[in-house]
Design a protein that fits this description.
2 copies of one chain form a homodimer.
Chain A: E1 2-8, E2 11-16, E3 28-36, H1 42-45, E4 55-56, E5 61-68, E6 80-83, H2 93-96, E7 121-124, H3 127-130, E8 132-133, H4 143-148, H5 152-162, E9 170-174, H6 178-189, E10 194-198, H7 202-210, E11 215-217, H8 221-231, E12 237-242, H9 247-256, E13 257-265, H10 276-282, E14 285-288, H11 293-305, E15 317-320, H12 324-332, E16 339-342
Parallel strand pairs in A: 9-10, 9-12, 10-11, 12-13, 13-14, 15-16
Antiparallel strand pairs in A: 1-2, 1-4, 3-5, 3-7, 3-16, 5-6, 6-8
Helix pairs in contact in A: 5-6, 5-11, 8-9
GO molecular function (chains A, B): oxidoreductase activity; zinc ion binding
Protein name (chains A, B): IMP dehydrogenase
Domain Alcohol dehydrogenase-like N-terminal (chains A, B): 24-128
């Protein structure tokens, strides 16, 4: 099969790899229908996380189950499945508590136990604990929104849930990438009365509005803080979604939070300093992390199939898998919000 | 009147101060029945927070209302009142949301607007937003438990509430000072099934058990982490109360938290580094800060008057106000958990 391998900074290649096969009783092999490139894939792509040796990449995909191990019970060949971005056993105490990203037997894609997602096929263990099947094979038009449940929509949902968004809230979303935009959608679905998106890119502003943003602020840093305080009569936001992971984005998130608010964070932290004094003085909480998309998948899948949400709109480019390298370039240069790959 | 003034490290003195009088329509003057020394008073006492100039000290007291301003409506002369450790207006958005410690017009005791608590009388503004009266003047035996509602019991309660303790939880309490002990009591009241207190001091261990601790661990640091993990079959605690505020206590708190848990923190942070990577990877939240004791006072007062809780047990020494300097020494040397002062 063909699969994407990252060799180093700015060097991803589609290569021939061994066809995957069932090794264990809990395994599944999935024929990929669509996969995509994640903002977090750009960290190694940009050289900010070093690539020690070439490895398969990609952790978001949907597809058709091709083959299963002898003990797999919840999916069968022919099923259309969504794969969350982490493989989890589904049975350990952390999985049972709904935090599958902390699974005691967690497996990452592109490792010796599971193929990378940006390829033609993916073999993975713990199929029952990981994959979620649709009731029937969905119309192709729904593929982008189902694919978004692999990561970005579940992650945006986790940001809003971690920030404890509730009906009537004023919510600020820091970050206008695919996750931030899904955070806008999530906050809106949770009944937030006002959803303020920080964005200075016109196409992203437009999508934020489609997803339910009531206000768009193009300011950054101190100016963004001042603008939010002006919007909220000096009080600040009831909940803040931090969807970037940089020092500046975290600072802004705390700056705009009102006393007693929670910052829900889902951006992988890079150089972040937590302002513990502000947290103490104003009782602003910090909560979040690697999103347990598996926990949210059943409900969000039902919402997508019912036409209630359409997170697939974050994909503003669809290209053949053969052009995966161009997809990375487009996302790196911010010409695309998120790139969908078709094998 | 006589009141306690801190002059510098290890130098507190009982001095003559002007008798307080009503200045504004929202003021009250309270004749102090009992006050006490706080763990946070030890920071300036030990010279860890510099004392720039002599100032009245103390922020926990109960007493009888002596006089009120023309617009005070909720307390009247002769009422027995509990004063939370911060003066709050009761009307700003933060007070209305139950975060009175972030009041937009917050006033500290021992400032030019309110007297220190360790004295014979205290004048304060915003009496309606701050003081809570008992239905009738209580029996003297209840004074310690009512005084505990000024700070330590409300703060312990806030730690448990910030950590989102729920029925059936396994809760670890880091810190065996008066606040930590009250945190044990709070977690127990909230229905925690297992309350693990970290303590190596026999009298504190005993009180922790009286307050509902099911397990006492005398280990510290990595050994404490290992002991908690052994108790919880490698999973960790559902909720952790961080009631100290040092780097080591915060590290231990995160080390023993299970994935998806929340660390509720109420110790004023000194040199604390927040392990953002752990928070992200295991979805461990951090939530808390200066406790809005005012918000909890009505319910906790009802519990004390009904004999449901007796947080006053944290006072293991009662001395005349004249001996306040000895009280500081006793607490500094950890000979006393918490010292009650009678004017």
């Amino acid at each position: 099969m063909r699969a994407t391998v990252i060799h180093g900074a700015f060097d991803v290649r589609l290569e021939d790899r061994p066809d995957p096969k069932i090794d264990g009783p809990g395994d599944a092999v999935v024929k990929v229908v669509a996969s995509c490139i994640c903002g977090s894939d750009l960290w190694p792509y940009r050289g900010e996380n070093p690539v020690k040796q070439p490895r398969p990449i990609g952790h978001e995909f949907v597809g058709i189950v091709e083959e299963i191990g002898s003990e797999v019970r919840t999916v069968k060949p022919g099923d259309f499945v969504v794969a969350p971005f982490v493989v989890s056993d589904g049975t350990c105490p952390h999985c049972q508590a709904g935090f599958q990203t902390a699974c005691q037997n967690r497996v990452g894609y592109g490792s010796d136990k599971a193929d990378g997602g940006q390829g033609e096929y993916v073999k993975l263990p713990y199929a029952d604990g990981t994959l979620v099947a649709t009731p029937e094979v969905p119309d192709d038009s729904l593929v982008p929104s189902l694919l978004a449940l692999s990561d970005v929509m579940g992650t945006g949902w986790h940001a809003a849930r971690s920030a404890r968004v509730k009906a009537g809230d004023t919510v600020v979303v820091v970050g206008d990438g695919a996750v931030g935009l899904c955070g806008v959608l999530a906050a809106s679905r949770m009944g937030a009365e006002r959803v303020v998106a920080l964005s200075r890119h016109e196409p992203r502003q437009k999508l934020a509005k489609e997803f339910g943003a009531t206000d768009i602020l193009s300011e950054r840093g101190d100016a963004a803080r001042d603008a939010v305080l002006e919007l909220t009569k000096g009080v600040g936001a009831d909940a803040v979604l931090e969807c970037v992971g940089t020092k500046q984005s975290m600072t802004t998130a705390f700056d705009v939070a009102r006393a007693g608010a929670t910052v829900g964070f889902v951006g992988v932290p890079h150089g972040v300093e937590v302002p513990i004094g502000t947290m103490f003085g104003r009782n602003v909480g910090l909560n979040g992390g690697a999103a347990p998309c598996r926990a949210y998948l059943p409900d969000l899948m039902a919402d997508v199939l019912a036409g209630e949400i359409d997170p697939g709109k974050v994909f503003d480019a669809q290209i053949p898998l053969a052009e995966v390298a161009d997809g990375y370039t487009a996302m790196h240069e911010r010409r695309a919000i998120k790139v969908l790959l078709r094998p």
